Prior knowledge:
Helix 6 (188-195) packs across helix 7 (211-218). It is built from ten helices and 37 strands. Strand 2 (30-31) and strand 3 (34-35) form a beta hairpin. It is of the alpha/beta class. It has a 19-stranded parallel sheet that branches. A seven-stranded mixed sheet has the order 5-4-1-6-10-7-11. It is 22% helix and 30% strand. It binds uridine-diphosphate-N-acetylglucosamine (UD1) and calcium ion. Residues 12-15, 55, 79, 82-85, 87-88, 111-113, 149-150, 163, 165, 179-182, 208-210, 236 line the site of uridine-diphosphate-N-acetylglucosamine (UD1).
Amino acid sequence: MSPNRPAAVVILAAGEGTRMRSATPKILHAICGRTLVGHAVAAARALRPEHLVVVVGHARERVTEHLAGVDAGVVAAVQDRQLGTGHAVRAALGELARRGAVPEGTVVVTYGDVPLLTAGTLEALTAAHHEAGNAMTVLTAQVPDPTGYGRIVRGPDGQVDAIVEQKDATEALRAVREINSGVYAYDGRLLAEALGKVTADNAQGEEYLTDTLAILREAGHRVGAFTAADHREVAGVNDRVQLAEARRVLNTRLLERAMRDGATIVDPASTWVDVDVTFAPDSLVHPNTQLLGATSLAEGAEVGPGCTLTDTSVGAGARITHAVADHAEVGPGASVGPYAYLRPGTRLGKDAKAGTYVEMKNARIGEGTKVPHLSYVGDATIGDHTNIGAATVFVNYDGESKHHTTIGSHCRTGADNMFVAPRVVGDGVYTAAGSVITKDVPSGSLAVARGQQRNIEGWVARKRPGSAAAQAAERARDQQD
Ligand code: UD1
Ligand code: CA
């Protein structure tokens, strides 16, 4: 096993997060499509630890259930009362011990509310810890405003002497801008030993994990620090202002990666993406666009402005503008919008079109088939190279259940048609404008299903004498004479 592969990662996540003012536990708030604790678990998992423990307390049933969905390998350790970070780590080690596991090797401690921390920084921390042969290595950062954080006290040799909490710090110490991120790498055995000696004798009456530093030093062990290259990585989220700030930073990071991979993002400030979105080279995103879930853009796909795509795949060279799509597949070269709504189960074939004011749901649209204007296509299969006339409705719902309509290839359906499902329309069919199709149509037929037009001559002059309409009709007749 690689020496940098930790025996355990412990994520502290028992706190309530009152400053969110939310019915949802803080760590279950999401940024970029993943909860705060989900981000922490993803970074921890990338280190491939033997054990991944999350300390839960506040709303622990909800949090535990969420964790099981995020990562089946996570061990939840319950901390009934939040008696301090040292107490929380003791709860984690206690839970592992109950399972017969004593972490031999490196134990990394991190937080559930630090979503920007990357696996890369955690790896660099464990590598530095291992190379120095430390008992404890603190991840520190130089921050513009250290208020609220524990301050790093360094000796003349540059060694870390102590971590002093804000509430326990003197005026002079409060000016120190190097802070404790709360993330550490420990020798597992020495951590357990040191935790046995931590007391609650401080301003907050809590068991401080930070006290392990002095305890280990006094016992003659090496303690070191590793400074994060980017202080924003260690920023915790405590309220919704910080939540928005973290989202912005992560979004920028995701978009910069996409751009380096060859995507054009016209306006990063108004483009919002989730962590699992993928971009092929030469994909292009116009402003005011949200790409959510597992949305993917293939080569040359062009999306926006004004799109929200969720779990949608956009084929090579496809074009989507001013549209909302959810669980849809847009084939290569297809065109969607402006003003289209593709609901779950929509699959547009190669070069197909869902045009303006078109809604689709559970609809398979064949290659080159076009639904250009003002239509609803629900529960339908349409073949290749068919054109659906403007203002067509697939009448799929009889008030109780949904029914399916199949239309063949190379059809030309007239404007303002209703296809009353369940219906099968063959290949090469034409339908007349304004038809309500209530019978199946055999291949090659013209279907006409509408009342015959009747003109009752002279009706206006007889029934509306002297009206503007009657006068206009009279003038028209005079001009003809
Ligand atoms: C802690 C550090 C401080 C550091 C800061 C970084 C200590 C004593 N201080 O302070 O040096 O600069 O983090 O953010 O460790 N938690 C539990 N159970 C508890 C207490 C806390 O799970 O009993 C969790 C919280 O949910 C939170 C994290 O641990 O995610 C930090 O707890 P918090 O009380 O916010 O610590 P700070 O006072 O900010
Ligand atoms: Ca905190």
